[in-house]
């Protein structure tokens, strides 16, 4: 039976070997035996390319590798030219002039968290997959050293947490988040859609069978001060069967908004 994921020692430089060995130990992901073809050993491969931690599927015809990259031109363009306000930000009602406290309880590749932070929010990202967490950590570290001040300032508002967000939400909060954001995994469609982007396709394969903890929405509603926002595929049923106060349609998704009773907004 092949391993689910292995770490490749692409770089034989002694310091790179040391850091990959440390990563292997912290993630409990074994190293690919030297000079072996990954296809025979694992379904996914983690490796460094151009100093970025990348993940790819070893299946034939699989899309290319992905990494967490906040320091890229299209994201910066999106951040600088708000021609169309992001549906996500409208759903959460975040304002650039106010540092909204957001908990992104399903961080994934951190793109939505970055959009919140780019709009001035202070974001706690929680991710329970150790592999995704390591990729996020790597992306945030690289973006903190970006030549672009805007990128450095944005990631400085992003605080990464490893573990199950259900546990995090149940813990003690000095200041509760005003917004809790949920974008749980949704079972892959029978018909492969071109709209399922490369990184989401890979995520669906990697985390296949990992159920989202039931009760995420209930716990989010307990914790959020102002509202809970849930991202769903356009025609998906409501999360945990619970109808929102209202919904906003994005380009390919729907944002279900659950305002908290007695809050100011
Ligand atoms: C669809 S992805 C989120 C994508 C993300 N919004 C983005 O912009 O990249 C869902 C992620 O939530 C994580 N997740 C699911 N349930 C979780 C939980 N209970 N605690 C922490 N992370 C969870 C999964 O591991 C997965 O990485």
Give the biggest beta sheet. Answer: 7 strands, mixed
Ligands, deduplicated: S-adenosylmethionine
Structural class: alpha/beta
Segments where pLDDT lies below 50 for 5+ residues? Answer: none
β-sheet strand percentage: 15-25%
Instruction: State the domain count.
Output: 2
Determine the mean pLDDT.
86
Q: Quick one: overall form?
A: globular
CATH overall fold name of the largest domain: Rossmann fold
Terminus-to-terminus distance: 53 Å
What is the CATH H-level superfamily of the largest domain? Vaccinia Virus protein VP39
CATH architecture of the largest domain: 3-Layer(aba) Sandwich
Order of helices and strands: EHEEHHEHEHHEHEHHEEE
Estimated helix fraction: 25-40%
Q: Write down the Rg.
A: 19 Å
- Put simply, the count of helices is 9
User: Number of DSSP strands?
Assistant: 10
What features would you highlight for this structure?
alpha/beta; Rossmann fold; seven-stranded mixed beta sheet; 10 strands; 31% helix; globular
Give a verbal description of the structure.
The chain is α/β, with parallel strands linked by helices and 265 residues long. The chain has two domains: 3-57, no CATH class; 73-259, Rossmann fold. It has nine helices and ten strands.
Brief characterization of the structure:
The protein is α/β, with parallel strands linked by helices and 265 residues long.
Write the layout of secondary structure elements.
Layout: E1 3-7, H1 14-27, E2 42-49, E3 52-57, H2 73-80, H3 87-92, E4 101-104, H4 111-118, E5 122-127, H5 130-144, H6 149-155, E6 158-162, H7 165-170, E7 179-182, H8 198-206, H9 216-223, E8 227-233, E9 246-249, E10 253-259
The protein binds S-adenosylmethionine.
